[in-house]
Automatic annotation (TrEMBL):
Claim: Nucleus is one of the keywords in the record: yes
Record family assignment: Belongs to the histone H4 family.
The protein's name: Histone H4
UniProt keywords, alphabetically: Chromosome, DNA-binding, Nucleosome core, Nucleus
């Protein structure tokens, strides 16, 4: 996340240059939007757990609990 700030550009979801189908750009845009909403929700919940514990650093367990709260249990990180 370094250097991107709010509303950063997701380079991993950019359509390849010279794409043969124009419709693919719409798919990439939709994917980018869904990914952004998902990450915003997970990060919001993780930060809420962090603030409740009176910490300033988000831990891996905060993210695990945030995912579990949203019904996406992640195994292998303890807890």
């Amino acid at each position: 996340m370094s250097g991107r700030g709010k509303g950063g550009h997701y380079e991993a979801c950019d359509p390849p240059l010279g794409s043969p189908w124009r419709g693919e750009a719409l798919i990439y845009e939709e994917t980018r939007g869904v990914l952004k909403v998902f990450l915003e929700n997970v990060i919001r919940d993780a930060v809420t757990y962090t603030e409740h514990a009176k910490r300033k650093t988000v831990t891996a367990m905060d993210v695990v609990y945030a995912l579990k709260r949203q019904g996406r249990t992640l195994y292998g990180f303890g807890g």
